[in-house]
Structures are given as structure tokens and as C-alpha cells.
Design a protein that fits this description.
Shape: elongated
Low-confidence stretches: none
Largest sheet: none
Oligomer: single chain
Number of strands: 0
Number of helices: 4
Radius of gyration: 15 Å
Helix content: 55-70%
Order of helices and strands: HHHH
Distance between the termini: 24 Å
Structural class: mainly alpha
Mean pLDDT: 89
Length: about 110
């Protein structure tokens, strides 16, 4: 089993999850993709995949809430989604910084990767 630098693991994992704050830009998806391609650390790769799954899921839930806004329940769902998309990455960053040897998994998202 290879030894990976825990500080590098912390930074790259936190960067993957922190990229979620650039949700309306290419960086939100681009940063985790670049890290996924360039690293050989399995924990960092898992965190990059999870960050990508989070972004894809937020996009899908956003489309659903916009469609449901016609029925007026989408506005509530969109508000909840907005709060979730802000708080969940913060929890993920704290988790990967406090325990760099474990990947973080978001609750309530689709897992494509």
C-alpha cells in the first residue's frame, strides 16, 4: 500500500469540495475533473468523484424545482436546495480536513461516478 502525503490529500480533497462554491462557473466541475485526472491518490479521487456527483445532483434538483415552481411547491424546494448547496460543502470540507484518510459522502445526492 502506498503512503500518500496527508497534507496534500487534505488540500486536494478540500479543494474538490470547495469548488462547489463556484456553482455557476466551469470551475465547480472543472477543478474536481482536473484533480481526478491528475492524482493517483484513491481518497482524493473518491472525493473528486463525490464533488462531481454533488454538482450534477444539485443541477438536477435545481431543474426539478424550477419545473415544480409551476405548482408553487418548487419555490420551497429551491430554497431548501439553496441552503443545502451552501451548507453541505462546508460540512464536507470540515470532514476531509479532520479525517483525511476517509472520503466524504454527501447525503441525498445521486451517485453517477
Amino acid at each position: 500500500m502506498a503512503n500518500y502525503d496527508p497534507d496534500r490529500r487534505k488540500v486536494l480533497s478540500a479543494l474538490c469540495h470547495g469548488a462547489c462554491f463556484f456553482s455557476s462557473t466551469v470551475f465547480a466541475v472543472g477543478i474536481p475533473i482536473v484533480i481526478l485526472v491528475l492524482t493517483d491518490d484513491p481518497v482524493v479521487k473518491a472525493n473528486a468523484k463525490e464533488a462531481l456527483n454533488f454538482q450534477i445532483s444539485i443541477f438536477i434538483w435545481g431543474i426539478i424545482s424550477i419545473l415544480l415552481a409551476i405548482l408553487l411547491i418548487g419555490f420551497v424546494m429551491f430554497f431548501i436546495l439553496l441552503i443545502f448547496s451552501f451548507i453541505a460543502p462546508i460540512i464536507a470540507i470540515v470532514s476531509v480536513l479532520s479525517n483525511p484518510d476517509r472520503r466524504y459522502r454527501y447525503d441525498g445526492i445521486f451517485h453517477f461516478l
